[in-house]
Amino acid sequence: MPTLPRLAFASGVLGFATVLGPAGLPAQVPAARTEAEAVAFYVDAHRREITAELLDFLALPNVAADTENIRRNAARLVEMMEARGIRTRLLETDGPPMVFGELPVPGATRTILFYCHYDGQPTDASRWVGHAPWDPVLRDGNLESSPETFALPAEGPIEDDWRIYGRSASDDKSPIVALLSALDALEAAGLQPTSNLKFLFEGDEEAGSPHLDRLVREHEDLLVADLAVIADGPRHSSGRPTAVFGVRGIVTAEITVYGPTVPLHSGHYGNWAPNPAEALAELLATAQDEDGRVTIAGWYEDVLPLGPADAAALAALPDEEEERRRLGIALPEGGGRSRWEMVTLPSFNVRGMWSAWVGDQARTIVPDRAIASLDFRLVRDIQPRQQVERFVGHVIRQGYHVVSEEPDLATRLGHPKLAKIESTRGYPAVRTPLDDPAARAVVEAVREATGEEPVVIPTHGGSVPGHVFPDYLGATFVLLPIVNPDNNQHSPNENLRLGNLFSGISIFAGVMRMP
Amino acid sequence: MPTLPRLAFASGVLGFATVLGPAGLPAQVPAARTEAEAVAFYVDAHRREITAELLDFLALPNVAADTENIRRNAARLVEMMEARGIRTRLLETDGPPMVFGELPVPGATRTILFYCHYDGQPTDASRWVGHAPWDPVLRDGNLESSPETFALPAEGPIEDDWRIYGRSASDDKSPIVALLSALDALEAAGLQPTSNLKFLFEGDEEAGSPHLDRLVREHEDLLVADLAVIADGPRHSSGRPTAVFGVRGIVTAEITVYGPTVPLHSGHYGNWAPNPAEALAELLATAQDEDGRVTIAGWYEDVLPLGPADAAALAALPDEEEERRRLGIALPEGGGRSRWEMVTLPSFNVRGMWSAWVGDQARTIVPDRAIASLDFRLVRDIQPRQQVERFVGHVIRQGYHVVSEEPDLATRLGHPKLAKIESTRGYPAVRTPLDDPAARAVVEAVREATGEEPVVIPTHGGSVPGHVFPDYLGATFVLLPIVNPDNNQHSPNENLRLGNLFSGISIFAGVMRMP
Question: Which residue of B has its CA nearest to A413?
Answer without folding.
Answer: B330
